[in-house]
Design brief:
Length: about 1500
């Protein structure tokens, strides 16, 4: 559908950076911004249609207070009618659409409508949520704003009230506002790439928001993304900035108190000259200027908003960068060209998509040509090709303007990126966009390595490691590992594992990276939602000093709670002499290009930097406590003590999962814990296959890094049953179990030697050590009886003897006075009590009595032992009192049962009985659960039965029998005889309940001796009870047992092997003598511990501290085998079917891309061959033309019939159009680049466009009509007249010394036309003197003050063999560039004004003396943006160099450097091509560097 003529105007003012790149009024923060009283937290980006009412109320109060709309308050009838034929105002609205005050008769005679006077701001009445009718339930946000709304207010609305996260990138998509056609493949590539870059970088996409043109393309790209189900990191934020007065059906959006939601109907058929909003955008900013139907109103506000957002700082993970912005161009007309020009002028990179049409294709066609070949005729030819419909509307002046703008755009190639489908290696739009930003950043001037550092920060912020690999980590720049440390910290905090891996690959060493300060900074930046963070906060809250500052010993305290009290603190509490924390407050540390840098964290303490004991361990713990899977995996791969590290991670994760409230997070932690257990198993398996003995050393080696614990202890505490059940570990436990005996000794041999002691010296038992095998003395006996297997069997024999003697006493020999057998039992029990006491107080790990007691009582068998002993003491007490002798025997009998149950623990060592005991323990839990269900049925049936049958039974024991006991026995078939009245016998019961041995009779008719209760009811209840209890519940119990058995049976072997360790460790540390002879060992132990104060220590066989050399060799061996394990895992991963399918898919995609690229290359080759053929034909035509002309001049042939051939000029023009050759840039192109910029600096003056070919005065330029401009200056006395009046100009003497003003040029006499001098370098597009002082040459002086750059030792620094210079530069606000301290001196003065500003007045004569002895490096014209046709700057650049660092004049100069203005900055800066100074000053520095043979 063709757009209305009004819309055509708007269609050429496409979205973009706008047409007003000059002064912007609202870039600062609005001081009177009224915030809502309640803090509005960030919510989900799109709330549902019925969101929080409180938030809506806050929004309804905040928006009308801070955001306004525009309303016409004065109706002036227009000569035009509306589309419906109604009378309208000059603003475009009908009379009915105006306020009542606007339509009332006015006394004023003012008949002209003036928007400044007749449009007023009022509180906005259109905001809230927007839902597109019939297009799903997607909800967006919208607001109607005045065109004068400050950008800071809109940004506050978007980030605080709409809940948008601050973007990492701003993508401004501009182009044609009318629908256009794109190739399907190019459209697909563009849509996929745009959404990908927005999603991966967290960008905002800003468009015009309407359902047409490029905005529609963006919306459809977002729609395809959402329909594809690719929501991984949230939705794509698309913000439409549209004109309120051009929106069709906008009346549905008007809700004075906010629309939550407002319904909007997309009606393309009835929109006419208006436009509809695009339903695929997420947010809309509708700009209102009080008019109707006027397009382009939003462009100035959009320009300012984008500028404001790009100046904001995004901080995350310690990295703070200004939000980068990029302009993406599709198709477009003159307005789009202006948008691109403004963007390039302000340093914004642009990506032009070739093949989209019109402006985009014109720029893409000429982007690779030299500036001299981009001529007016070439642009005219391109416009004829790509603007066929509107080519006739292009005037000569507009073609010249297009040529000039395109030349300026192409001249800054570093900001222009052309995306060509399948060409130049480009495949994806997202890569092209990010490459454009990096290319623009690379072209900016920065000191030292800051340029590359800035690019790296952008890549980290976007989380695009592919861009970093291909564009940043190249041979072009060699990164120092220390330069990557700040960004490494940011990548860790931001959880970007791919970047961490990249930095490690590029030389970052964790031992140099991780310092105490870095580690503390990382812990202070834990995720607030992290459980470890909340545990740290609790520890800090318990500190006596408030407010407590986080220190590493606080972290160690929480870690010890997670790892277990058997470990030592990983980070000791600092002494007073230690430096406990950062010398800078952490919240102020950030990596910022402009401000304080996180790099100071690594620079400021380089002299006394303290490193941690194990940096890989520290980073691994930091990642694990935050449940960061990928990051922890990368760091673990770098670890040294990898087996212990994996087991410690498993322990930490399992402990955290117990306290984690979020179920999903808890499951993720458990899954990650299992993964690290498997890693530990994998590494240990590699070690065990290689060397069993060294692998077993790893198990018992004391790890200083992990709190002086061992791998075996960590695995046991973490309950890593798979690891403990590993064959290697079980072999080690078996070795420990057999002590110094060989494991192949049969138990029958051990039993024989135990029973017949002399057999020990016959060689029946073999020992591992050859020494013991040869020795026949006490050492052999000691080794035998100290073996845990022997101790265990001796204790079994002792325990069986104890039980037999105990049973004999209870059943046969229980006398009023204890017999010798009973006394032996007491002695035996006393030895057991002593042994339990020893186990309770045995603390080799120095956990403390309370922790050891808690650990002791956590074991079920220890509880059983203590219970049996206490019960025995209670029975013994009753037994010794004659009155309670029988009660004592009963208690001791019950105690015997508990002692018998203790045998189950002894049997756990058996591979046959041990697993079955585990199953029984698990089934006991099922029984208790079953008894709860059974009790419900038993009690309910018993109470009902008792109440029906028995009347007022008051005997408690018989109530219990009737309710519980009889009901329970009924399940097993003992049905009461009287329940149905058939076997009713009155003699078996007591009628009144007086017989204590008989139950009370049921309700009965005593006269007829028949029961009176309803028999049918009791029988029915009995049947139901038996049905549920016998059939349902008992079968449920069987099913539960079966399930438990099957579930446990699969892991019974693992569980048994895991629990086997406890028994082995118990008997490994147990005295060799069995009870009651163990009392002798206890006596010896008492003397050693209490009397001699010898501390307890764990046997070396379970905890062994190695020598440093031996430990280092063992860990190196483990690292080597860990690498083998990781390689085997990668190989197995590649061999998986899913990986193979994915690999094949990638290969197929690559082949398809190669085929498409080959097709494009072939078509390109055909085009080149055709161009070459056309060129040859043109050359042939030229040769034939010459032959014909020569023959005709020689008198051959006749004048008639001469063929008309193309002229040589036409052939040359064709050559130019085809772009067959590259020509050398014209000499004049070096000049007047800055002097011909369309926007005159700091003034609202636009130059007349002057393309390169029209610069020389000799070139004819008939339409050249530049404006005249001469600015007022404060020093009016020393300034030439402002106007071009001949009488005033006649008093000026050009090409001569005019009073104190030298008007002679260094380039010789210049021409004077119309009383005004002509710039010797050609046209500039502006007449007058501009902001300069004088017509003609304005002479300046630029002293280049340099010295050699030296290191701390005083030696001259070199780069690429050449010496390095330092130059004195100054920066004067508002400029962000540095400059040489030069300029135009006052009339009659020698020193420039800028130089006087930085020198003390008393030093001026000394500097004048230095100027006399300086070396001239340049004299002539300077290309300055202030130059005009009639006034220009010429300078003399002189070099003042200090060869010696001890030069008296240098010291005097440094002492006299002083700025009167605090905003003015001075510094010595290294001379380099990247130095951020003005371009013309950079040329002077290059000449000085060449003069001294220095680096540049």
């Amino acid at each position: 559908m063709e757009p209305h003529p009004l819309r055509k105007v708007g269609s050429e003012q496409e979205e973009g950076f706008g047409v007003q790149p000059r002064r912007m009024a609202d870039l600062g923060t609005v001081s009177n911004l009224r915030r809502s009283n309640s803090s509005l937290g960030k919510s989900h980006r799109l709330q549902g249609p019925f969101g929080s009412s409180e938030k809506h109320e806050n929004l309804s109060s905040w928006i009308p207070e801070n955001i306004k709309k525009k309303e016409c308050v004065y109706f002036v009838e227009s000569s035009k009618l509306s589309d419906a034929g109604k009378v309208v105002c000059e603003c475009g609205y009908t009379r009915e659409q105006h306020l009542k005050e606007a339509t009332k008769p006015h006394d004023s005679r003012d008949t002209e409508w003036d928007p400044k006077k007749h449009v007023q701001e009022m509180p906005t009445d259109a905001f809230g949520d927007i839902v597109f009718t019939g297009l799903g339930q997607k909800v967006g946000k919208y607001v109607r704003v005045s065109q004068d709304t400050p950008s800071s207010v809109i940004y506050h609305l978007m980030t605080q009230h709409w809940g948008l996260d601050v973007p990492n990138l701003l993508i401004s998509v501009t182009g044609g506002a009318k629908n256009f056609n794109m190739k399907p493949r190019l459209k697909s590539i563009f849509r996929r790439g745009l959404v990908k870059v927005a999603q991966t970088t967290g960008a905002w996409i800003i468009t015009g928001g309407s359902h047409a043109g490029v905005m529609k393309q963006v919306g459809e790209a977002v729609r395809d993304f959402s329909l594809g189900g690719s929501y991984k990191e949230g939705e794509v934020i698309t913000i439409g900035v549209a004109t309120w007065g051009t929106i069709h059906r906008r009346e549905g959006l008007v809700h004075p108190t906010g629309g939550f939601p407002a319904e909007y109907t997309l009606d393309e058929e009835g929109q006419g000259s208006l436009t509809c909003l695009d339903s695929n955008h997420s947010h809309f900013i509708l700009v209102d200027d009080g008019t109707h139907g006027q397009y382009g109103v939003e462009i100035p506000l959009r320009t300012k908003l984008e500028k404001f957002i790009s100046e904001q700082t995004k901080e995350r993970g310690g990295v703070a960068i200004k939000i980068p912005i990029v302009c993406v161009v599709l198709e477009g007309g003159p307005g789009t060209l202006h948008t691109i020009y403004n963007a390039i002028t302000h340093g914004t990179p642009c990506v032009v998509v070739e093949g989209s049409g019109r402006v985009a294709d014109v720029i893409a066609q000429v982007a690779s040509l030299p500036i001299s070949e981009i001529t007016i005729s070439l642009i005219q030819q391109k416009l004829g090709v790509f603007f066929q419909e509107m080519f006739e509307t292009f005037t000569e002046g507009s073609v010249v303007e297009w040529t000039k703008k395109i030349q300026d755009i192409v001249r800054r190639r570093q900001l222009l990126t052309v995306f060509r489908e399948g060409k130049d290696g480009q495949q994806d739009v997202d890569v092209a966009i990010l490459q454009a930003l990096l290319k623009a950043s690379r072209s900016q001037d920065h000191f030292g390595h800051e340029n590359w550092d800035h690019q790296l920060k952008l890549a980290v912020a976007w989380n695009r490691v592919d861009i970093a690999r291909s564009e940043i980590f190249t041979d072009e720049w060699q990164w120092k590992p220390s330069d990557l440390h700040p960004t490494m910290t940011a990548a860790l905090i931001s959880n970007k594992p791919e970047f961490v891996k990249l930095f490690l690959e590029n030389g970052v060493r964790l031992k140099e990276f991780v310092t105490w300060d870095t580690l503390l900074y990382l812990y202070e930046n834990l995720e607030p939602s992290c459980l470890f963070h909340s545990k740290l906060q609790k520890v800090l809250a318990e500190e006596p000093e408030r407010p407590a500052c986080l220190q590493m010993h606080h972290v160690a305290q929480v870690l010890r709670e997670l790892l277990g009290d058997f470990t030592q603190p990983l980070y000791p509490r600092p002494r007073h002499s230690d430096r406990p924390r950062l010398s800078l407050p952490v919240p102020h540390i950030k990596l910022n290009v402009q401000g304080v840098s996180l790099r100071s964290l690594y620079k400021r303490s380089s002299g006394h930097m303290t490193f941690t004991m194990d940096p890989v361990r520290d980073l691994l713990i930091w990642a694990i406590v935050q449940n960061r899977r990928e990051l922890a995996g990368i760091i673990w791969a770098q670890s040294q003590d990898c087996t212990a590290a994996a087991l410690a991670c498993s322990r930490i994760l399992k402990e955290l999962s117990k306290e984690e409230e979020d179920t999903d997070t808890s499951e993720e932690m458990l899954a990650l814990a299992d993964e690290y257990e498997l890693r530990a198993i994998g590494v240990f398996t590699e070690c065990y296959r290689k060397d069993e003995e060294r692998a077993q050393k790893l198990l018992t080696r004391v790890s200083e890094a992990w709190g002086k614990t061992t791998c075996l202890q960590l695995a046991l505490e973490a309950k890593d049953m798979k690891f403990v059940s590993h064959g290697g570990i079980q072999a080690f436990l078996t070795k420990v179990w057999w002590g110094q005996l060989c494991v192949d000794n049969g138990l029958w041999r051990v039993a024989l030697c135990m029973l017949a002691f002399p057999l020990l010296f016959t060689g029946l038992i073999s020992f591992r050590e050859k020494r013991l095998q040869a020795v026949r003395g006490p050492a052999r006996a000691r080794a035998f009886f100290n073996a845990p297997v022997v101790i265990f069997h001796l204790n079994i024999l002792s325990y069986f003897a104890f039980l037999c003697l105990f049973a004999y006493v209870l059943m046969v020999d229980f006398q009023p006075t204890p017999s010798w057998c009973e006394c032996a039992i007491y002695l035996w029990l006393f030895s057991l009590v002593c042994e339990e006491t020893r186990q309770l107080f045995y603390d080799p790990d120095e956990c403390g009595l309370m922790k050891k007691a808690a650990l002791y009582f956590s074991d079920f068998w220890n509880k059983l032992d203590v219970g049996a002993i206490l019960l025995f003491i209670a029975g013994l007490t009753c037994r010794l009192i004659p009155a309670t002798l029988y009660a004592g025997r009963v208690v001791l009998s019950l105690d015997f049962i508990m002692f018998c149950l203790r045998l189950m623990h002894i049997f756990t060592v058996s591979k046959t009985l041990g697993p079955k005991i585990i199953i029984v323990k698990r089934m006991m839990k099922d029984v208790f659960f079953f008894l709860f269900l059974l009790a419900v049925w038993v009690v309910s049936f018993g109470v009902a039965k008792q109440a029906i049958l028995i009347h007022n039974e008051r005997r408690v024991d018989w109530i219990f029998r009737g309710v519980v006991y009889h009901s329970y026995l009924t399940i097993f078939g003992q049905i009461p005889a009287y329940i149905d009245g058939v076997n009713f016998n009155p003699d078996q019961c007591s009628p009144n309940g007086t017989d204590p041995y008989k139950p009370k009779c049921p309700e009965s008719d005593m006269a007829r001796h028949e029961p009176a209760f309803p028999e049918w009811l009791t029988v029915l209840l009995l049947c139901l009870y038996l049905l549920f209890a016998n059939i349902l519940l008992l079968n449920l119990l069987i099913a539960m047992f079966n399930y438990t058995f099957q579930q446990v049976q699969e892991h019974t072997d693992q569980i048994w092997k895991f629990q086997r360790h406890d028994l082995i460790e118990e008997y490994h540390g147990r005295p060799p003598a069995p009870p009651p002879f163990i009392l002798l060992s206890h006596l010896q132990l008492f003397i050693r511990r209490v009397v001699l104060k010898i501390p307890a220590r764990r046997h070396r066989q379970l905890k062994n501290k190695l020598e440093k050399n031996e430990e280092a060799a063992l860990l190196s061996w483990e690292i080597y085998l860990k690498e083998n394990y990781l390689q085997s895992q990668q190989f197995q991963q590649r061999q998986r079917l899913e990986q193979k399918i994915g690999h094949i898919s990638d290969k197929v995609d690559t082949m398809v891309d190669l085929l498409d690229r080959d097709r494009l290359k072939r078509s390109s080759s055909v085009e080149q061959r055709l161009a070459s053929l056309e060129e040859q034909v043109a050359q042939t035509a030229t040769a034939l033309h010459w032959i014909v002309r020569t023959l005709r001049d020689s008198g051959f042939g006749s004048e008639t019939g001469v063929p008309i051939l193309a002229s040589q000029k036409a052939a040359e023009e064709q050559d130019l159009e085809l772009g067959g050759r590259k020509k050398v840039e014209e000499p004049g192109d070096g000049y007047h680049v800055d002097a011909r910029h369309l926007l005159y600096p700091s003034r609202r003056v636009t130059r007349f466009p002057v393309p390169n070919e029209k610069v020389p005065w000799e070139t004819e330029f008939l339409i050249y009509n530049p404006p005249f401009y001469s600015a007022e200056r404060k020093d009016a006395a020393a300034t030439d007249p402002m106007g071009d009046v001949p009488e005033l100009l006649s008093e000026i003497s050009f090409n001569a010394v005019d009073g104190q003003t030298d008007r002679r040029s260094f380039h010789g006499p210049y021409a004077v036309r119309g009383g005004l001098p002509l710039n010797p370098m050609g046209r500039t597009g502006l007449r007058g003197r501009g902001s300069l002082s004088c017509f003609g040459p304005n002479h300046a002086l630029h002293p280049v003050v340099t010295r050699w750059r030296r290191n701390e030792d005083g030696a001259i620094c070199r780069k690429s063999i050449k010496k390095m210079l330092e130059v004195l530069v100054v920066k004067v606000p508002p400029s962000e560039l540095w400059a040489l301290p030069g300029g135009s001196p006052e009339p009659g003065e020698t020193l420039p004004r800028k130089l006087k500003q930085i020198l003390r007045e008393e030093s001026w004569p000394c500097f004048e003396n230095l100027l006399k002895h300086s070396t001239e490096v340049y004299k002539g014209y300077m290309d300055d943006p202030r130059n005009t046709d009639n006034a220009w700057i010429e300078t003399v650049a002189v070099s003042i160099h200090f060869q010696d660092q001890n030069d008296v004049e240098l010291k005097r100069l440094n002492s006299n450097l002083h700025t009167r203005d605090q905003d003015v900055s001075i510094r010595w800066q290294v001379v380099d091509k990247r130095i951020p100074v003005y371009a013309n000053h950079k040329t002077l520095l290059q000449k000085v560097a060449t003069l001294f043979g220095a680096h540049y």
